[in-house]
Amino acid sequence: MSDNPKILVADDERDFTAALQVTLEGEGYRVITVSNRVQAQEAALAEWPDMVIVGTIMPRGDAFLLYQWLKGTPALSDLPILVIDARPEKRLLKGWRREEGLQMETEDFLAKPIEPRSLLPRIANLVAKATKDKAARKIRVLVVDDHAIIRDGIRAVLSLQGDVQVVGEAVDGRDALDKALQLSPDVVLMDIVMPVMNGLEATKQICKECKNTQVLILSQYDDEENVLASNQAGALGFIPKKSASSHLLAGIRSVSHGKRFVHSLNV
After folding, report:
1. What dihedral do alpha carbons 118, 122, 123, 128 form, nearest 10°?
2. Alpha-carbon distance 130 to 82, whole Å?
3. For the domain that residue 156 is a member of, what is the CATH number?
4. pTM above 0.70?
5. Which of 135, 162, 189 is the last residue of a domain?
6. N or C end of the chain: which has fewer CB within 10 A?
7. 117 CB contacts (<8 Å, ≥6 apart)?
8. Which of 258, 212, 186 is nearest to 44 (CA)?
9. Per residue in 218-244, is it b (16+ CB within 10 Å) or e — as a string?
10. Rg (CA), the chain
């Protein structure tokens, strides 16, 4: 997979979008283009871009709704956003309203007409800042176990790590799915045997619905069957609870970077 920065462009003016895409790709950026708010939200969750360019999209007001959604989604709230408003003659039809602009805290705000090449220095600065911020960002972890004493113990261990942050706890699989959708953690630390919904079913649902979240199974049942079932459910890692003290942190850090981590005494 390429490490080149990825930029999401939301704009419904095809000529501008095409010219911008050619310019950015010529500089080595990976570009995803969409033409409306719903497509932009889906692409942001699926692609995890390094920055977002919000251009003109219809109906009027949807650009601001997209901006609000990006800022209100935990996994995306730190993304730099470059807003490009409509041309003066089209501003009443598809431009930003004054009250919307007053509520905005974007990194840059421009207006059409604008040459795509003139955007390159601004984009390079925003992407560089995003890359630096991402490197310093803590790994957001959701702890899932039906035993409070285990959750408390894991939270205590993780609280001592400078690069890890526990963003929530869940008491069963259904609760885990709800919290994952709400909090967008980087890693879900998941038990298998729980009431309401077991950890394997919850893992399937989280992997399906939370594209930027990885699941690390932490279970006392470390037989080959459970390791295989965890893998088939979509989990990226597996650690027996009896080995957690020595392998938990390595597992969290590995899966947060998309690397598989399996430690089982029986496999």
Report:
1. 150
2. 12
3. 3.40.50.2300
4. no
5. 135
6. N
7. 23
8. 212
9. bbebbeeebbebbbebebbbbbbbeeb
10. 21
Residues 109 and 222 in one domain: no
Contact 116, 24 (CB under 8 A): yes
pLDDT of residue 267: 44
Range of the domain at 227: 138-262
- Say how far apart CA 83 and CA 54 lie, in whole Å: 5
Distance of alpha carbon 267 from alpha carbon 265, whole angstroms: 6
Residue type, 258: G
- Among 135, 167, 192, the domain boundary falls at 135
Bridge partners (DSSP) of residue 33 are 9
129-138 long-range Cβ contacts below 8 angstroms, 24+ apart: 129/80, 130/5, 130/50, 130/51, 130/78, 130/79, 130/80, 131/5, 131/50, 133/78, 134/50, 134/78, 137/78, 138/162, 138/163, 138/164, 138/165
